């Protein structure tokens, strides 16, 4: 059959299918108004899948996928037309009614570590007029924000070459805080020691485990001759090196730590990649959504059954929402069961997105809305 004739037939079929597709979407929305339960809807979908795939022969996998996509599109449309009025709706309504102004550049800011840490530099960049308060641990930063001691807290959540800071995900799930902003900081690591020290004299290198991971190739090149010791923070490592009695302890830290702790660089730019960025999130006790917010973060626990994750991803696909990050981490006390950290593009001011969040809250085992924010 000539290609022109094939195209004409396809066009004719498309014109016939189009009004029927619109009619089906409207009927799908009306089905919700008849108060069908999720179980009843799922049973009907399974019956339709069984009928369609039995008649599709060699096209069975394609027909199965087509109908699944059709169901998800209908579900997304139904949820937009018939919002459930769940907890997330009241949260968003309350938050958006505050109409916060531009993101503030001052306040008391909680950061982990000491002066000279990467967290301090990120905080100074995001809050030019902020008053920084230093804490020994990530959890202490969360507690300071949750208890109202500090208005904001700045926490590293992932690095472009060494991955996520897993402990932060657990804290986001356990603590009552929201993400209100995020920012990225280009990280350049140096090996710092007391003046007069040389690489041959160094017996021990200290740094945060993330920094050690980001400089793993350099450390490997030392041939295991130098002891590597993790510590709580890169700036703390620099402080320890500055107190070294014999000058044989070095620290992997950023260049500003040189002046702060009277050190000199033995080796520069020792990170594995020049494209080395750490991403920091700004947390707040209050749910605040500032103008320009275009990222949404969630923590979900899904039902432990085949297809549970696919159903969430299908919802995002149906609304053409771009998923930026998806990461799983184990649920403590449950063998091989996981929670999922989702980060996606979108705004809760979009009614379709708000309806999608409501649907997730209803269908997921647990649902935590972490915030809608922008990144600089």
Characterization of this structure:
With 376 residues, this protein is of the alpha/beta class. A hairpin with a 3-residue loop joins strand 3 and strand 4 (163-164). The mean pLDDT is 86. The chain contains 13 helices and 15 strands. The longest helix is centred in the N-terminal third of the chain and has 31 residues, at 3-33. Helix 2 (38-54) packs antiparallel against helix 3. The strands form three sheets. Strands 1, 2, 3, 4, 5 and 11 form a six-stranded mixed sheet that branches. A five-stranded mixed sheet has the order 8-7-9-6-10. The chain has a four-stranded antiparallel sheet with strand order 13-14-12-15, sandwiched between helices. The N and C termini lie far apart (56 Å). The chain has helices at residues 3-33, 38-54, 60-81, 87-97, 118-126, 138-146, 166-174, 209-214, 216-221, 234-242, 256-261, 308-318, 351-363; strands spanning 106-112, 129-135, 152-159, 163-164, 178-186, 190-193, 204-208, 227-231, 249-253, 264-267, 277-284, 295-301, 323-330, 338-345, 366-373.
Estimate what percentage of residues fall within beta strands. Answer: 25-35%
Helix content: 40-55%
Q: How many H/I helices?
A: 13
**DSSP summary, beta strand count:** 15
Question: How far is the first residue's CA from the last residue's CA?
Answer: 56 Å
């Amino acid at each position: 059959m000539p290609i022109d004739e094939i195209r004409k037939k396809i066009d004719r079929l498309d014109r016939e299918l189009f009004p029927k597709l619109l009619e089906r979407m409207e009927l799908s929305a009306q089905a919700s108004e008849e108060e069908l339960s999720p179980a009843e809807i799922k049973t009907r979908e399974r019956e339709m899948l069984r009928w369609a795939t039995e008649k599709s022969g060699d096209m069975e996998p394609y027909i199965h996928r087509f109908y699944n996509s059709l169901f998800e599109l209908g579900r997304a449309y139904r949820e937009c037309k018939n919002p459930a009025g769940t907890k997330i709706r009241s949260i968003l309504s309350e938050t958006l009614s505050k109409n916060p102004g531009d993101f503030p550049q001052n306040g008391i800011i909680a950061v982990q570590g000491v002066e000279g840490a990467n967290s301090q530099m990120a905080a100074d960049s995001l809050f030019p007029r902020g008053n920084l308060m230093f804490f020994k641990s990530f959890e202490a930063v969360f507690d300071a924000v949750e208890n109202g001691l500090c208005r904001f807290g700045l926490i590293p959540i992932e690095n472009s070459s060494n991955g996520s800071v897993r402990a932060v995900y657990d804290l986001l799930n356990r603590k009552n805080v929201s993400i209100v902003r995020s920012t990225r900081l280009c990280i350049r690591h140096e090996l710092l020691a007391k003046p007069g020290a040389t690489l041959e004299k160094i017996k021990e290198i200290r740094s945060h485990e993330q920094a050690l991971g980001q400089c793993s190739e350099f450390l490997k090149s030392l041939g295991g001759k130098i002891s590597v010791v993790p510590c709580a923070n890169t700036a703390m490592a620099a402080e320890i090196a500055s107190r070294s009695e014999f000058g044989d302890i070095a620290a992997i830290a950023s260049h500003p730590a040189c002046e702060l702790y009277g050190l000199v660089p033995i080796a520069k730019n020792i990170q594995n990649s020049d494209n080395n960025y750490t991403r920091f999130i700004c947390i707040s006790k209050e749910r605040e959504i500032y103008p320009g917010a275009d990222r949404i973060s969630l923590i979900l626990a899904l039902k432990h059954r085949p297809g549970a994750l696919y159903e969430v991803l299908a919802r995002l696909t149906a609304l053409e929402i771009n998923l930026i990050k998806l990461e799983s981490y184990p649920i403590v006390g449950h063998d091989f069961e996981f929670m999922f950290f989702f980060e996606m593009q979108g705004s809760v001011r979009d009614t379709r997105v708000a309806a999608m969040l409501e649907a997730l809250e209803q269908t997921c085992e647990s649902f935590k809305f972490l915030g809608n924010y922008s990144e600089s």
